[in-house]
Amino acid sequence: MDKNTTICNEIIFNKVYKAHGKAIWRFIYFKCGNEAQAEDLVQDAFIKLWQNCAKVPVEKAKSFLYTITNNAFLNEVAHKKVVLKHAKYHPDKVENQSPQFLLEEKQYHQKLQGAIANLTEAQRTAFLLNRIEGKKYREIAEVLDISVKAVEKRMSLALKSLREEIGEL
Amino acid sequence: MKRTIMEKHYILHNYLNGTATQEEIAQLKADPEYASYIKIAEATKCFDTPDFDEKATFNAISEKLEQQPKVKKLNLWPTVLKIAAVFAVIVAGYLYVDSLETTISTSVAEKQNFNLPDGSEVALNANSTIEYQKNKWDNNRTLELDGEAYFKVTKGNTFTVQTKIGAITVLGTQFNVFARDNKLNVNCYEGLVSVAFNDTLIKLPTGKSLQIKNGTLVTEHQSVTEKPSWIDNESSFENASLTTVLDELKRQYPITVQVDDNLKTKRFSGSFAHNNLDLALQLICAPLNLTYTIEEEEDQVTIYAAKNK
Fold first, then answer.
1. What are the pLDDT digits (tens) for B25-62?
2. Is the ipTM of this complex over 0.85?
3. Is the minimum CB–CB distance between B72 and chain A shorter than 8 Å?
4. CA distance B125 to B146
5. CA 20 to 30 Å from B123, out of A29, A57, B176, B257?
């Protein structure tokens, strides 16, 4: 086998980490809401990838990493509440909002944040992969190893329970 | 335009997948329930996870990988190559040794009888050498001779004796070859022998002998014997020069011979035995009216003309 095309090559391994490391960490964080735990799982996944570098072709590395972390997560017990930070603003947000509006919006976000934390792990992961990571249903189905229909269902249920928790505007 | 719940749900998923048109989204927003879904979806987009320290994590991975006992991949190639190399050397060595010429030689006063791989018998006279390739013998019955040998060839394909002067080829016969210095004598005792000499091919039938000396060819009859006399430890000569006789004597006995140059041209017919030097010298010297002395310690023989009988 040509060493340059396997993950056993450190440069290739580095590239794979750069390409997927962060996404996997976020993926786990959506699931467990625990930064340290997410980091541990990322480390474990990449160590396993290195140990199996000869058996995993580069193009299969991504799904290998997701499968490993998925399985590892199922074995983990403790779940913490997902804490998201309010990082991005709507690009279409106009300045000169009234203080009243800004306050309302802040409260809305806090409520939403709490509601997301209360979602089931399955719904939250699918929902945040779609909303924050911008993944299509097909991609989510792939990394979670479920059907697109199942992703649709999780999305619907997630929206429904979020709306119920924060109430109508 | 009113849309059914199913349709709205479909559009909602399209919207979440980023494939809904502005118009469809506007229609969706008309329904307060879906409007709030969109608001939730939009607002969630603003969230982000805490920062992930990509570099630190990678360093941690690298560190852990170094600590781990290295999973040594069992690489068989070097071992296989080592074994293969040893085998290659053995096989090459065997083939080399096998392809080497087999050399059989005799020294002064030594005779040797042996069989070739096909069963042909060879009697090698003193101070002679035969070389042949054992592994090719079945296909190529060729040997090189320097000296004198008597061959009893079993029937088969062509049997060739290469000498410096010419090549003798036969199919199955008995013959004697004497090839020394510039002389080539071939005696055929049975069958038919062909001698290739320069560009000519000479057929030698039973009972004939052939002499080539310094590039000239002499065919002559041979006294009717069944095999060369040297086989029976006796050298026979017919009208041979004293030099020729003494050369043969020196091959059969480990001696050096001193003789006056003017005596060397004397001709000798007769024979001498290989097992008694004193008797041999007597047999040579007496008919030629010569005497000799033997200095035992240095194996030095001096021959001179007899002063008076």
1. 888 888 888 888 888 888 888 888 888 888 888 888 88
2. no
3. no
4. 10
5. B257
